[in-house]
Amino acid sequence: MGATRTPSDRWIEEGLRALASGGPDAVRIEALAKTLGVTKGGFYGYFTDRNALLEAMLDTWERRSVDDVLDRVRHDDGDVRRKMQLAGALTFSADLLPIDLAIRDWARRDENVAARLRRVDNERMQLLRDMIGTFCTDPVDIEARSLLAFCARIGEHFLVADHGVGAARDEVWAHAAAIIFGQPSGDSDR
Question: Which of 186, 24, 14, 13 is nearest to 117 (CA)?
Fold first, then answer.
């Protein structure tokens, strides 16, 4: 009986962990093999080279960030605001956020990764537009709220300013969400 090969998804998972902690330069076949406790020879049974692994990692991130999130949101029984919160929580979950941030940084230097990120962000923005469009009718209002919501979720991870009011940060974020997802600016019964 031959030795059990390390499944390709373990290589991808370890590659995503390395990417999240050290960027694309940290995704090295020898280092991944050492972390997995295997020889690098098994790698080539699944991937032709490092670039093939990087593509598989991006495919996995995209599936988790878009397809899996959309599937969970569509099957959630909550109202649209609950679904928007769920989409944000899933998209920027503890396991996806570090990968997402690393890919954003990587995209600044790699046009193929930038194109992939653009596609993912476009799908995320469209989800926001669709959901906000269920309670807003003005296209500019829909776009502004979608943009603000997405920028707030991403920006919170880059903003290092101290929190300046007596309310807890969670309360402030809830208030921000109420502003962004609240009554449309064109409605007369405010």
Answer: 24
The phi and psi torsions of 69 (rounded to 5 degrees) equal -65, -50
User: What is the Cα–Cα distance from 85 to 91, expressed in whole angstroms?
Assistant: 10
The residue assigned the tokens 């309310």 is: 167
**pLDDT < 50 regions, the chain:** 1-2, 187-190
- The ranges assigned to domains in the chain are 58-181
| Residue corresponding to tokens 């959309």 | 70
Indicate the SS3 state at residue 108.
Answer: coil
Helix-, strand-, coil-residue percentages of the chain, each rounded to 5? 70, 0, 30
Q: What is the pTM of this model?
A: 0.86
Nearest to 11 by CA among 21, 39, 22, 116: 39
Distance CA 147, CA 129 (A): 9
